[in-house]
Amino acid sequence: MIYLGSHVSMKGDKMYLGSVEEAISYNANAFMVYTGAPQNTRRKPIEALKIAEAQKLMQKHNIKLSNVIIHAPYIMNLANPSLEKRNFAIDFLTSEIKRSAEMGAGQIVVHPGSAVGSSREQAIIWIAEGVNEVIKKTKDLKVKIALETMAGKGNEVGRTFEELKGIIDLVKEKSRVSVCFDTCHTHDSGYDIKTGFRDVIKHFDKVVGKEYISVFHINDSKNERGSRKDRHENFGFGEIGFKALLEVVYHEDFTQIPKILESPYVDDKPPYKEEIIMIKERKFNPSMKEQISQKAEEK
Length: 299
Ligand code: FE
Ligand code: FE
Ligand code: ZN
Fold this sequence. Notes:
Elements: E1 4-7, H1 15-25, E2 30-34, H2 51-60, E3 68-71, H3 83-103, E4 107-110, E5 113-114, H4 120-137, E6 144-148, E7 156-157, H5 161-170, E8 177-182, H6 183-189, H7 193-207, E9 213-217, E10 220-221, E11 232-233, H8 242-249, E12 259-261, H9 272-281, H10 288-298
Parallel strand pairs: 1-2, 1-12, 2-3, 3-4, 4-6, 6-8, 8-9, 9-12
Antiparallel strand pairs: 5-7, 10-11
Bound molecules: fe (iii) ion (2 copies) and zinc ion.
């Protein structure tokens, strides 16, 4: 049994219920949502999310709440040099965690932050302070803050395992912090996911501890290793390739850890149903993209 799904949307009147329906349409048993547009911090009230209906449908389809992942908006920067903006990020993340808890999700993925106008060391300290503050404000909740491994574009913090370790070391309540391991990002930041994933994990284990990984983002990359670009490619169609990504999905140390696809749409159509078939059958379909395009045309 693997726990596999994709990023799905949460919008319109159906909100969370619509997210579950979308996940089911891909035959997924895990999924990830942004609780609103990832580029802004406007959010609907919790009462409008259709949480009870969504959870009922999940139960019917055997989707465990532990395989529901929330993603915080990526414009939020806990490392902003402005105290006012850092406080805004703290307050917003606090409200996102309350929302995640209401939805029953076990974790929220957060991009650690961007070291704009300050040193990376200072950024790491601010991020950890922010995380500590948020944890204090939500101390009765269990939702984990999953810091994502980043590609390292611009001034992104979290491009090395050492940087993530630096943040985690400063977090007081370790049970509330974890890592979201993104294969495209780690490849783009320079780790050898294509031919050396097992060694990369050994290294991660030495630096951070592999028990900290609470979710994987399984993405291929459009660019070569070390490019620091962060452009996702469809599963098996990029520089990492099908075989290596499949090894990540089926690695024996992470069988209980949910795996989330964040691949790009093909001709405005989500590719997740087809990608999940390839992963489950362990067989690459080189004409997947054409097939999706064709279907899109027929409609
Ligand atoms: Fe992310
Ligand atoms: Fe990601
Ligand atoms: Zn990315």
